[in-house]
Automatic annotation (TrEMBL):
Molecular function via GO: beta-lactamase activity; penicillin binding; peptidoglycan L,D-transpeptidase activity
Keywords: Antibiotic resistance, Hydrolase, Signal
Boundaries of every Penicillin-binding protein transpeptidase domain copy: 157-474
Single GO cellular component term: plasma membrane
Reaction catalyzed: a beta-lactam + H2O = a substituted beta-amino acid
Keyword Protein transport (UniProt): no
GO biological process: antibiotic catabolic process; cell wall organization; response to antibiotic
Pfam families, A to Z: PBP_dimer_2, Transpeptidase
This protein's name: Beta-lactamase
Domain of life: Bacteria
Length: 480
């Protein structure tokens, strides 16, 4: 072979090799940079040429695709979008995706590996390729009631109802809320986005999972577990004094209203829990010790996050450098912070005999042929407390419910909280909390109404949050 021809052939082969290597790098390692780049109009057009799967709950369609006059598929949210918006999220040409629409995007658009075989088969048969459907655990009746209880009163806050035995979330309401249809409609999207971001209540935030707040006296459930681990019992004697001085400080903490606990200078743990006496829990928390306190918080998953398909913030008990910090933390103040979902898990764990189940909001993924592709099974995370400890806490929470405003003989175990916050905490409008469950029914609930709702400084967990929690428990039992 002529030398020049041989040189040209080798050079050509090298060019082909370089081209193949470059294509491999682009296809295998730069997909996100090019194919999935939002500026890639080809990917955008392809996405618009096939329908996404549906999002549904309880047989009701929450999100679906429809074909417009130009043949492109658009998204709509036909069922109670304000109630479901923070969970279902949105997928917008302008603002991207959020909620279930974001986390299950590959499932909904049909690119998930579990659906790849079905997609290839559809291509061979010339069928329109569609995504799979996502079914949620939410019960529409309970979800709408929870949302309306907050929204109709003009409250900022959140509600979570959960099934203790399985971790299924029956309701997750957040206010203020948003309508995802406003964000996906190009005719109003920019103005809606500007308005939502300008609102002081952060409506685009899921307040049930993304916001953590001081839990106040609801955290006494956790402190009580620490006390039980340290040898305390419902009959243990504690101070009922109207105030207590934190160790090595001049700082005092007092009972609600500055009152002596149940009119007694010394009380049992059972009485202290029923009347939610701060001074008794400061004493018990310090005597139980920081290690037991941390272990109790860890057992209940206070700092855990869960793979829900929606964003979630981690709770905290903060640093506990000394007994003074421990005393403040024992009543759910100082640096202690939890989301409503995390507090619902606390109630659900007690209700479930001490077993903490992983909460989940997606029930299953179903293909276009109605076959189940994936089903979320109940998952036990840990035995947070013994059955005996759970039984003791249930009895104590029953006593607490009997002392809560509005009690009318219901078989409910609960704990309220009235959480001061801010720089001038004593003069703040407190967050009103209520966590509860029905011992003979498989449902637990957590409620927070921020900044006192419409009661201001006079707000308490019993007067503001408890009525909402009881209504949700009743609806959940009726819908079971």
């Amino acid at each position: 072979m002529n030398r020049s021809i041989r040189f040209t052939s080798i050079f050509t082969l090298l060019l082909v090799l370089v081209l193949l290597i470059n294509l491999t790098i682009i296809q295998a390692f730069s997909r996100e940079k090019y194919a999935e780049n939002p500026l890639n109009k080809r990917a955008f057009i392809e996405m618009k040429q096939q329908p996404r799967g549906q999002i549904s709950a309880g047989g009701q369609i929450l999100a679906e695709s429809f074909q417009d006059e130009n043949g492109f598929y658009q998204r709509r949210y036909p069922t109670d979008p304000m109630a479901f918006g923070p969970v279902e999220g949105y997928i917008s040409d302008i603002y991207g995706a959020a909620g279930i629409e974001a986390s299950y995007n590959n499932v909904l658009n049909g690119t998930d590996p579990a659906q790849s075989l079905s997609g290839i088969w559809d291509d061979l048969l010339g069928k329109e390729q569609v995504g799979a459907n996502v079914e949620l655990t939410l019960n529409p009746q309970v979800q709408n009631l929870a949302y309306s209880q907050l929204a109709n009163a003009g409250y900022e806050g959140a509600v979570v109802a959960i099934r203790p035995s399985s971790g299924e979330i029956l309701a997750m309401a957040s206010t203020p809320s948003f309508n995802p249809q406003d964000i996906v409609d190009p005719n109003v999207a920019e103005q809606a986005w500007e308005n939502y971001n300008a609102e002081p209540g952060n409506p685009l935030l899921n307040h049930a999972t993304q916001e953590t707040l001081p839990p106040g006296s609801t955290f006494k459930v956790v402190t009580t577990l620490a006390g039980l681990k340290a040898g305390f019992s419902p009959d243990s004697q504690l101070t009922g004094a109207k105030n207590i001085t934190l160790p090595n400080t001049n700082t005092t903490l007092e009972n609600y209203g500055g009152e002596v606990c149940a009119g007694q200078q010394t009380v049992t743990l059972a009485t202290a829990f029923q009347y939610s006496c701060n001074t008794a829990f400061v004493q018990m928390g310090i005597e139980a010790g920081a290690d037991n306190f941390r272990q109790a918080a860890d057992a209940f998953g206070v700092s855990d996050t869960y793979d829900l398909g929606i964003p979630m913030a981690s709770g905290t008990i903060g640093d506990i450098p000394d007994d003074a910090a421990l005393g403040q933390s024992a009543i759910g103040q100082r640096d202690v912070a939890m989301s409503v979902l995390q507090n619902a898990v606390v109630a659900a764990t007690v209700a479930n005999g001490g077993k903490r189940m992983a909460p989940h909001i997606v029930s299953k993924v179903v293909g276009r042929d109605l076959n189940t592709i994936k089903e979320i099974k109940p998952k036990e995370l840990n035995q947070a407390l013994t059955p005996e400890e759970a039984s003791t806490l249930t009895d104590l929470m029953r006593l607490s419910e009997q002392h809560t405003a509005g009690y009318a003989g219901q078989n409910i175990a609960s704990k309220t909280g009235t959480a001061e916050h801010g720089e001038d905490s004593r003069n703040s409008n407190p967050h009103a909390w209520y966590i509860a469950f029905v011992p003979d029914a498989d449902v637990a609930v957590a409620v927070v109404v921020k900044n006192g709702g419409d009661r201001g400084q006079a707000a308490t967990g019993g007067s503001v949050a408890a009525p909402i929690g009881r209504a949700v428990l009743q609806a959940a039992q009726g819908a079971a």
